[in-house]
Amino acid sequence: MLRGLIKGDNAFVPTAALRVAVGGGVDVAALLVTEQGRVRGDADIVFHGAPAHASGTVRLSYGADGDREGTAWLDTDLTGVEEGITRVLVVASTEQGALRDARGLSVEVLGPDGGTVVAYEVTDAGPETAMVVAELYRRSGGWKFRAVGQGYVDGLTGLAVDHGVDADEQPGDTPDRTPTPAAPTQAPPTGQDRHQPPTEAPTEAPAPAPGTRPTRDQLLDMTPDQIRALAQAQRQAGAGSPAEAPSTASPPADPAAWTCGPAFEPRTATGRDNDVITVKDLPHGPVMVELAVRGDGYTGLWPLDDSNTKGRYLVSSTEKDFRGRVIASVPEHGRLRLRLEAGGTWQVRVLPLAEARRLSQDRLEGWGPEVLLHTGGTADVTFQYKGTSNFIVHLYRLAGHTDPTTLPKPGGAAVNEIGARKETLPLPEGPLLVFLSAADAPWTARLKDLRPHSAGPDADGPAKLPEPRRALAWLRRARS
User: Fold this and answer.
1) Is 28 helix (H, G, I), strand (E, B) or coil?
2) Which of 34, 303, 381, 398 keeps 20 to 30 A from 66, CA to CA?
3) Could you tell me if residue 238 is inside a domain?
4) Partners of residue 366 on adjacent β-strands
5) Are 289 and 301 in contact (CB under 8 A)?
6) Separation CA 56–CA 401 (nearest Å)
7) CB atoms inside a 10 Å sphere around CB 135
8) Is 85 found in the same domain as 151?
């Protein structure tokens, strides 16, 4: 380490895309807080179950990098952090034991060239189970790093409350429109408090049977596949109910239960220069491949078939420090093989499509190819592209598509232009994948004229399943 700090020290860091390495084999999260030291909402929590901030400026990954076994990585692009965010807190926590039991608990900030900018080794951890280890904060028009080391014996809950996270599960968290009423639950044994949690809880609750109302805990413990299966069963049950009048129209799409792509734990690979990358034991179907290269020259990425023949390129760019997300397909045998040509260090992450960034009426910023998800009703999306090369957009309509191992055919490109431009594109009702397959420059996207989804609260279609609150999933160590 080139420069080691002690608790309370601070130092300027470059306003650039930095990598923050957290050692010690602990769970890591990032809180993006305002000047008041509070998050604006659950979306400002970056953790294992939600590893990317909506702005794209903070991303979390786990995995070994050379001899860095047990290291978590926070990729933080300080140039793009929203103006309302003044600090990015680096949080470490444990599920078992205390932080004093974590060997090698430390934070190291790496610059764009991969060299160490600043580092802090935690040497005084005690019985606490959660800690703000360090923070990146704005100062004098730039950014500084502070070695914090503030622990919380009451764990993530105490830390969360201190920074404005609502740790309570309110009854209003679950929408009124839910699947059919629940079957009565079994009464607790005599003398047992109804509000007392069971002494032993299963690590993964089974999905509720069709016709029953899932509890909040069940929803938090269900996998994406279970949620999709439950939603599909509810739709089928509703379509076949004799109490409902027959209809010739197709049931409206349920954006909370879109059924494209497998669910799995993200995978990470790192290296340098040209290579062949093999990621094993993946589910069959379409996935996102996130590529970041630090270096000059040409960057190319191709899928390899079983005969090691290159398919159609996924990435072809001459931009410096390329980064972006593209779509690839995992074969039935579960091995995704990629041929990479790059001049410099690189990181490849394989992610489920469910982690695509969501389009909304808020401005979304990005650089490079990207996969976006639209789950609302009909809308217009306005793109502003600042590059000089190709800008190409494809649409994949997921409504009614029930095969998770394939993508529907996109047809022709919805946008195929060259050079800087502002483009407004009408979108059909979601769920819809919006794939920016070529965009070697900064861009922004924003929805306008957004209409309610036909499966919204005033519709007669299937009810939307409530999405678990990000804060509750984080506090419960949800690993979706």
Assistant:
1) strand
2) 303
3) no
4) 443
5) yes
6) 28
7) 22
8) yes
Q: How many residues does the chain have?
A: 480
- The stretch 209-223 carries a mean pLDDT of 48
Which tens digits make up the pLDDT trace of 355-406? 889 898 889 999 999 999 988 889 999 999 999 999 999 999 887 777 878 8
Spatial strand order of the sheet with 357-358 comes to 357-358, 370-374, 432-439, 390-397, 415-418
CATH of the domain at 345: 2.60.120.380
**pLDDT of 315 higher than 50:** yes
* CATH (domain of 378): 2.60.120.1050
Q: Is 291 helix (H, G, I), strand (E, B) or coil?
A: strand
- The identity of residue 210, as a single letter, is P
In this structure, the answer to whether residues 40 and 163 fall within a common structural domain is yes
d(CA 463, CA 461): 6
pLDDT tens digits, 250-302? 333 344 445 567 778 889 999 999 999 999 999 899 999 999 999 988 999 99
Residues 266, 21, 138: CA angle, nearest 5 degrees: 110
Instruction: List strands edge to edge, sheet with 130-139.
Output: 10-13, 142-152, 130-139, 87-93, 27-33, 45-46
Phi, psi of 283 (to 5 degrees): -70, 150
Q: What is the full DSSP assignment across 420-440?
A: SEEEEEEE-SSSEEEEEEEE-
| Coil vs helix vs strand at 161 | helix
Instruction: Specify burial of residue 401 (Cβ count, 10 A radius: 0-12, 13-18, 19+).
Output: middle
Q: Answer whether residue 291 is part of any domain.
A: yes
- Token pair for residue 127? 């019985």
pTM exceeds cut of 0.70: no
Q: Coil, helix or strand for 249?
A: coil
Domain assignment of residue 109, given as a range = 4-167
Q: In angstroms, what is the C-alpha Rg of the chain? A: 23
